[in-house]
Amino acid sequence: xxxxxxxxxxxxxxxxxxxxxxxxxxxxxxxxxxxxxxxxxxxxxxxxxxxxxxxxxxxxxxxxxxxxxxxxxxxxxxxxxxxxxxxxxxxxxxxxxxxxxxxxxxxxxxxxxxxxxxxxxxxxxxxxxxxxxxxxxxxxxxxxxxxxxxxxxxxxxxxxxxxxxxxxxxxxxxxxxxxxxxxxxxxxxxxxxxxxxxxxxxxxxxxxxxxxxxxxxxxxxxxxxxxxxxxxxxxxxxxxxxxxxxxxxxxxxxxxxxxxxxxxxxxxxxxxxxxxxxxxxxxxxxxxxxxxxxxxxxxxxxxxxxxxxxxxxxxxxxxxxxxxxxxxxxxxxxxxxxxxxxxxxxxxxxxxxxxxxxxxxxxxxxxxxxxxxxxxxxxxxxxxxxxxxxxxxxxxxxxx
Length: 400
What we know:
CATH class of the largest domain: Alpha Beta
Protein name: Alanine--glyoxylate aminotransferase family protein
Cofactor: pyridoxal 5'-phosphate
Pfam family, one: Aminotran_5
GO molecular function, one term: L-serine-pyruvate transaminase activity
Family: Belongs to the class-V pyridoxal-phosphate-dependent aminotransferase family.
Largest sheet: 7 strands, mixed
């Protein structure tokens, strides 16, 4: 057998030195120093009594952030997509029908996951960049009698915040459907009241408005939703994300299921402590105030928002790309010249919008001034019809 040349040599890899970016895209956001410090604390076992106490604290803090009393509120070991798949893959059984929205990229992901769970998908239509209308949802539910209705509360691909959640929930419940909310870009940054709005299942990502590294993702289920999960006739297709098994670890028993990402749970705990210290309503107000300053600067500069004022999403600002400008070139120039991250559009809005986050620890006055200054400079250099100084002036005036 011929030995591969160099196979016994250790690879030469330099010390890790990633660039120091200002993260103002759709996620991740800047991580608070306290969260980074929490990640450097000593590792313990995932069944250590000290870690069990941390698990209890994280669950209680998550209930506060979700505004819920749901017993079954946990961080799923994985990114926000894992929490999404845990939600949909457990509440949608083979042969059941799930109603999903067409008004954004992540409604399409809901549909894909429901199909993989063995469900039949039907759609409720709305243009990209607009919310779902209550009447349209009511008609779709009457026509198709779904078992589960899903919607995206904060659509990261369009910058739209769904405004009529209580009404949507009421329509779905009147027909016996469970309600699943994608809160990935809203938890901790935009008003979200799971119990008051009668949402049965909500999931989120930690790397957005919670400003936590990805790896342990919030999920909450009502008693009714969990009863459905535990009464399933057929096991979910994912063993790892089977909530009936995870109940043994995150429930009263604390029995082994998998090795939890201990350091990520530390990080989530500290991020949620910051939420509780600030106060959830104060945090919602901060995001709206600073994103309002960002929006004022964008519009004063001469750019246009993608979403109308009545359903504008403060945590993710979708900005129309000016005529004659390549969005990818702008994003690259911002990285190279300013170490600043924003993002291009997804799906139907690919090439048509910039996506500018204003989330968590990134939602600070200096960052808002910085992103408007840098974006104005880059667009001006590229020949766009913008007034960078007017944008910065508007930001400063609004923040004051």
